[in-house]
Amino acid sequence: MGAYEETKLPADAPASAKALAWVDDRFPLSKLWNDQWGKYYAPKNFNVWYLFGSLSMLVLVLQIVTGIFLTMHYKPDAALAFGSVEYIMREVPWGWLVRYMHSTGASAFFIVVYLHMARSLMYGSYRKPRELIWLFGFAIFLCLMAEAFFGYLLPWGQMSYWGAQVIVNLFGAIPVIGPDLSEWIRGDYVVSDATLNRFFAFHVIALPLVILGLVAAHLIALHEVGSNNPDGIEVKQHLGEDGHSLDAIPSHPYYTTKDLFGVSVFLLLFSAVVFFAPEMGGYFLEYNNFLPADSMKTPPHIAPTWYFTPFYSVLRATTADFMYVVMAAVAALVVFIWLKSKLAYRVKVAIAVIGIILIVGMLPQVLDAKFWGVVLFGSSVVILAFLPWLDHSPARSLRYRPSWHSYLYGVFALVFLTLGYLGTQLPTPAYTIISQVCTLAYFSFFLLMPWWSTMGTFKPLPTRLTFTPH
User: Fold this and answer.
1) I need a surface site. Which of 288, 341, 355, 443 has the fewest CB within 10 A?
2) How do residues 351-366 score in pLDDT, each as one tens digit?
3) What is the DSSP string of 385-425?
4) Distance CA 186, CA 184 (A)
């Protein structure tokens, strides 16, 4: 091993420089800062869509800090939980502000994450060589959904209690192991104090640790391969004499200042919601959740919080009659793959066998619609993980794809928002039909992507970034 050497600084160096040098000799603080941000070179044509990654980090920190203060007064006990939340709101100094920041932060988290994912869709940020970045991000999204679900029960209000009851009971639709699995998740035969305690443990300790680890992995993977850009072309192809790309600039101070401006705008909007509309018309905090949980009184309409409703609508759309439409869709997809795909013969045979098994399984005499509703509910989330292998477009970015691709993405966004809205409403026959049509459109967007993503006349890709200084 080499001899340990202290960094030599001039005698008149500032005390701060001496302190930093002392730390750097013992811990790579400056190196970490430079590698991950200070001297990390990013494409120079980032736009406003690239703010939502840093905003996600901000909201994560906000949720952790406010959550710590809430746990100081919260009682994870079925007899005391609702009262402890009311105590925080009414008696703890500034407790109402911390609670509203946390509840609003949960919705803000999903808003910025959905927009972050939308940017990846538009500019192809999940394409090679960034597949692992996307998979880490997808894992963060799954953990975030679980974190929000576990935290939703903690106020022990009417909607918290019955929402958890409905979601946990979904696992009961799984053949053979379903009932036992539901009981294991609850820790009891019904949602009870045991359920509250284990949900509290997952929400406060287990999942935050996993999310922090995944965020670190997400950022390390990003800075290893480099950031994508609105043009969807690699900037490392044109290097300057210093070894850095001619189309890239240091993140600090160029993007630090832009992120700070984005943070300022976000905090302004966030504060407006916290102080003037924390319930957001019942979407952020449901009115039934201001009533203590009552196992003897079922609310007339049980629905999850708005950020789960697009996937919840898929679950509700899966009725017994709709299963025949799904069976026809599976058969049509298999035939389409046989006619249009260039896959190997044995792969086509395997897909056909899987299709036949699925169709037989969808018969009402084999497995009921409730089970397939849970399958489609889970599939509507999991299918996002396969985007890097479903998109075969020659161009990453929508900027250089055929113009009708943009309209297709617009229709997909409309379908997603429609499913989200329908999930908050009572299931009428008309709404059920609309949600079924939207469910078919949602899955068609992904399952047919290997074909439609290659269709049309593509615009020529530039060799350098398109960038206008301002």
Assistant:
1) 341
2) 999 999 999 999 888 8
3) GGHHHH---S-SSGGGS-HHHHHHHHHHHHHHHHHHHHTTS
4) 6
